[in-house]
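Per your request, structure below.
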């Protein structure tokens, strides 16, 4: 599995301009319960020292209800995907919504 050129272009635009964000809740609601996805999200958060930060995060969404073959393909191609999108700062694997809670993502970003 390779990264589509359009995906790479959008990623470079995100890195340069940081202009594609939805709210985190809107983003998580858009994920399907039975389909694996790689998701890149520009995560804005406040540190414990009250500093505004932003980290480009890769979430490997592989829900328990997705087909086994799909989970295997996504698991085996994640490293290549990450290499092709140079600049990922935070990585998270999630199989259900609780694993990608905003607090969980923030704890990895700090």
């Amino acid at each position: 599995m390779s990264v589509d050129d359009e995906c790479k272009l959008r990623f470079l635009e995100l890195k340069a301009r940081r202009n594609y964000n939805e709210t985190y809740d809107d983003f998580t609601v858009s994920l399907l319960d039975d389909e694996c996805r790689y998701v890149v999200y520009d995560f804005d958060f406040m540190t414990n020292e009250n500093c505004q930060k932003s980290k480009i995060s890769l979430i490997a969404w592989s829900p328990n209800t997705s087909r086994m073959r799909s989970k295997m393909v996504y698991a085996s191609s994640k490293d290549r995907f990450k290499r092709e999108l140079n600049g990922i700062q935070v990585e998270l694997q999630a199989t259900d919504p609780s694993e990608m809670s905003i607090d969980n993502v923030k704890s990895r970003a700090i």
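Residues 5-109 form a domain with the Severin fold (CATH 3.40.20.10).

Regards,
D.
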